[in-house]
Amino acid sequence: MVTAMLETYPTDTRPTETRPTDTRPAETSATGAEAIERAWAAAERVTDPEMPMLTLLDLGVLRDVQVEDGHVVTTITPTYSGCPAMATMRDDLQRELLEAGFPDAEVRVSLSPAWTSDWITEEGKKALKDAGISPPGAAPARKGPVALTLMPTRRAVTCVLCGSDDVRLSSEFGATACKAMYQCNDCLEPFDHVKEI
Ligand SMILES: [Zn+2]
Hints:
Strand content: 15-25%
Mean pLDDT: 84
Structural class: alpha/beta
Number of strands: 7
Helix content: 10-25%
Low-confidence stretches: 1-10, 18-28
Bound molecules: zinc ion
């Protein structure tokens, strides 16, 4: 039926140059795969303010980029509920999308499923290591209630400088809450380790 309707619909016989042109600026229209691709590219440029060697994609914070009803909708999941960098990440994402031609882009925050350090990509882990920060190992599998302990968490950490596994925890909190401080007993290098959660 649709085909029949299309076939009987009068065709526009005016010369192309006299047809009304679409005067909307191309960069503000958010439709189709091209817009999603452009929005992803913009979103992927945003980095973590505390660990600028990581993009939000590397960090696993950027969950989704879609076009809904003509505007871009991105979804992010905070690393920690109290992470002070989260508001900055959201603002940076909004600004990057604005500069990419999406002034009405929406940034949604999704809390479930909860972020885990396992979402940090392999590229992200490599970028951390290249910057002298020990990347997290596999996150502990958790189901149901999480028991709290006063003892420091045992982790398999190796020195970022010499690779030795003879390291000691010097502080459960490093420059940011998501990192612990370690020191290598072999080469004495102090370094940050991104905690597994
Ligand atoms: Zn070392």
